[in-house]
Design brief:
The complex is a heterodimer of chains A (about 220) and B (about 500). Chain A is mainly alpha-helical. Chain A contains 11 helices and no strands. Among the domains of chain A are: about 30 residues; about 110 residues, no CATH class. In chain A, about 40% of the residues lie in helices and about 0% in strands. In chain A, helix 5 packs across helix 6. Chain A is extended. The termini of chain A are far apart. The model of chain A has no long low-confidence stretch (mean pLDDT about 95). Chain B is an all-alpha fold and about 500 residues long. Chain B has a single domain, classed as Formate dehydrogenase/DMSO reductase domain (Formate dehydrogenase/DMSO reductase fold), CATH 1.20.1630. Helices cover about 70% and strands about 0% of the residues of chain B. The longest helix of chain B has about 40 residues. Chain B is globular and about 75 Å long. Chain B starts with a helix and ends in a 19-residue tail after the last helix. The chains are: A mainly alpha (about 220), B mainly alpha (about 500). At the A-B interface, helix 9 of A face helix 6 and helix 7 of B.
């Protein structure tokens, strides 16, 4: 019986297999790189209504984080300061600088400055700032070297595995409580410190939840 | 020398004895009756696909499509509103969804049993029903999969069921039998499709070659351009799926080997899949569920319901296509007997559960079973018991097995009963567990009902498409078991010359 298809059709199966392998590899690599929070969130740095530089205030002037974000160690929410906090200095320092005009307007009118939010956990995630900073988790762990940023930039992925990496091994991420707001602090790579960290986790009953309902309440 | 003499003297004694006793010759019913020849078989099976679509097919298809749209509607409703539209609520968080899942998965088991286990046991009668039963398996798995998939609620996260690395840093719960279900059912589906397709390759090549031959003869006068166009389509369609099968000796050798290997892989699946499904219940610490009898009892029930469904499908098919010579009384007898056997196991399990509930002296367990039979769902228990235990017992009687209409009606009873069995197991244990303060009563909603009845439509649509486009029986394998294929048989009276 004559062949239904010409001879070159015999090569189709191998071509199809190769095409499938290539496509699957490309899709897997593409999704892994472009469609995970490491790519979709990291690097987000929106233009803010006031060109406030953390590098100047927190870095050069060495103002403590809590001077402005006053409730970070007492509340689940780390507040963004109202204009009156800015005015504690700027009522005297560079008070006529046009860059500060929106701050002044906000201070006088009571209308908040429309800051653009950079770091955001989803609605279905319960995150408490105070419990973290009071148990040796530094600002820098999630927000990066804010004291070196002119414009606040999203440094970490904030994916669930980002949270879980620490929740599963807290002793590898905690630091002495007095160093929490010191973004410059480096974890000593010594056996003594590792022991200290394990002791800290034990003594302070650092028991980060790993069950779903710990964060998704 | 001495032994030979002894042998010949024994032979002589035996012959003398036989001549004296004159035993009746045991007549085994042939698997293809009426002295049909090989050509008739090929023609009969191929012409189902090749002739004009019968009117009844269009009518059935229209009804099936309409019914299937119920499932579509129900699922659309569910996805746009949430799982709350199903009647699930505390304490009955598993209702029709899992009942329907187990029901459909169970039906699939007969296909695998026929294609794999009966193949390894060299049961010749499997050949005329195995293709359709395998198709039934695959379509049943499709219907079954819908329920757990949509029960996850946000169905677009369905891929989370599989262990795929993700930026959430989590895996599925490997200790959960529900996760085992994912692996069991997906393996089952894959192997079933492979088995079904591989077995079909030689037959697809027959359909291809017949189309090629008709095109060569070009005898389409009066038939019109459509008939020719259809043959061109057939030629290409079947040529693609026959993957260059040329009936060569080495093709057949590889085919036989692959078929045997697949049968070997599928055989444990007959037992394992429904065992794992039964673990969904048996691993939960709930009275009425937490019993070791579940795996064998579920497997028997699955085969029971599966053969019920095969009978439900094959009896009308046989009448519609006039296949009485291929699906003979012997086939129907055998299927009825398997129903009788597995149905009796199921009945035994029902009674044994009661015995153990009493013998185990656990008050919760005793209550669960008394509650099943006499509690708020007594009517479901009565349906289950009468359909599953009493119905198959009628198959003891030859008169019943030969009454095809009765067999068909009873096959439907079997499936109704098996659906109720899953309902009884799932709902009664959840509705009345340890704490009377949290007892409840479950009723399905309209969405439940639409989704479930729609799956019968979906199943029928798929099955009708199978009938219309694919070979209903494995042509070559049917020929192997024909009297004409027996080199020692008396086939002088068969038509044609087939040596």
């Amino acid at each position: 019986m004559a062949n239904v298809f010409p001879k070159w059709v015999n090569t189709i199966p191998i071509k199809v297999i190769v095409a499938i392998i290539l496509t699957v590899t490309a899709v897997v690599c593409g999704v892994t790189y472009y469609a995970t929070p490491k790519y979709t969130r990291v690097g987000y740095a929106p233009i803010q209504p006031v060109a406030f530089s953390h590098a100047l205030h927190a870095g050069q002037l060495d103002i403590d984080c809590r001077y402005c974000h006053t409730f970070v160690d007492r509340s689940e929410h780390s507040n963004v300061p109202a204009a009156n906090v800015c005015m504690t200095c700027h009522s005297m320092v560079r008070k006529d600088d046009p860059m500060l005009a929106p701050v002044k307007t906000s201070y006088e009118s009571g209308e908040p400055i429309p800051w653009v939010r950079v770091h955001k956990t989803p609605d279905y995630v319960y995150f408490n700032h105070s419990v973290h900073v009071n148990r040796g988790v530094s600002c820098v762990g999630c927000h990066g070297r804010v004291d070196e940023m002119d414009v606040v930039t999203h440094k970490e992925s904030f994916s669930m595995s980002f949270c879980l990496d620490c929740h599963r091994n807290p002793e590898e991420h905690v630091r002495p409580p007095e160093e929490v707001y010191n973004l410059d602090w480096e974890r000593p790579d010594t056996e003594d410190f590792k022991k200290e960290a394990v002791g800290f986790v034990h003594d302070w009953k650092v028991n980060p939840p790993q069950s779903c309902s710990g964060c998704h309440r | 020398m001495a032994t030979t003499t002894q042998d010949s003297s024994m032979d002589a004694t035996q012959a003398a004895l036989l001549a004296k006793v004159q035993p009746a010759e045991l007549q085994e019913q042939p698997l293809v009756t009426n002295n049909r020849d090989f050509n008739w078989v090929t023609d009969k099976i191929c012409r189902i696909v090749e002739t004009k679509t019968p009117t009844w097919w269009w009518i059935c298809m229209a009804v099936a499509l309409m019914t299937a749209s119920f499932t579509g509607l129900g699922l659309l409703w569910l996805v746009s509103s949430g799982v709350g539209v199903w009647g699930l609520a505390n304490p009955i968080n598993w209702g029709w969804a899992i009942v329907n899942f187990v029901f459909w998965i169970g039906i699939g088991h007969a296909g695998t049993l026929i294609s794999a286990v009966l193949c390894l046991l060299k049961q010749g009668w499997r050949t005329s029903i195995n293709r359709a039963a395998e198709a039934m398996t695959i379509f049943a798995v499709v219907c079954a999969g819908i329920f757990p998939l949509f029960h996850v609620g946000r169905v677009w996260f369905g891929w989370w069921l599989f262990p795929i690395p993700n930026s959430n840093g989590i895996w599925p719960q490997f200790r959960s039998p529900l996760e085992w279900d994912v692996f069991a059912v997906s393996t089952y589906g894959t192997v079933s499709v492979l088995f079904w397709y591989m077995g079909m390759i030689p037959d697809l090549s027959v359909l291809r070659d017949r189309a090629v031959q008709r095109l060569k003869k070009n005898a389409y006068e009066g038939a019109g351009a459509l008939a020719k166009g259809m043959d061109i389509f057939r030629k290409n369609f079947y040529a693609v799926f026959a993957m260059g099968w040329r009936n060569a000796g080495n093709h057949w050798r590889n085919y036989e080997m692959a078929y045997l290997i697949l049968a070997g892989i599928s055989t444990p699946l007959v037992l394992s899949v429904h065992t794992i499904v039964s673990f969904d219940f048996a691993l939960a610490v709930l009275p009425g569920w937490h019993t070791t009898i579940f795996p064998p009892y579920f497997v028997a029930g699955a085969i029971f319901s599966g053969f019920g469904m095969v009978l439900t499908l094959m009896l009308p098919l046989r009448a519609l296509y006039g296949m009485h010579d291929l699906i003979t009384q012997r086939h129907i007898d055998n299927m009825c007997k398997i129903c009788l056997g597995t149905g009796s196991i199921v009945g035994y399990a029902y009674i044994m559960e009661f015995f153990i509930a009493w013998y185990g002296a656990n008050p919760y367990e005793s209550f669960a079973f008394i509650n099943r039979a006499f509690g708020q769902y007594w009517w479901a228990y009565v349906m289950m018991f009468s359909c599953n235990v009493f119905t198959p017992q009628l198959f003891w009687f030859k008169k019943v097995r030969e009454n095809w209409a009765l067999v068909w009606i009873m096959s439907i009873f079997i499936n109704v009963g098996m659906w109720f069995e899953r309902f009884v197991i799932t709902v009664t244990s959840l509705a009345n567990d340890f704490m009377p303060s949290s007892w409840g009563y479950y009723s399905p909603t309209m969405v439940d009902i639409l989704t479930f009845f729609g799956t019968f439509g979906l199943f029928s649509v798929l099955f009708l498409l199978f009938l219309r486009f694919l070979p209903l029986m494995p042509i070559a394998e049917v020929k192997f078991v024909m009297p004409a294929a027996d080199p020692h048989g008396h086939h002088g009276d068969a038509k044609g010359d087939h040596h």
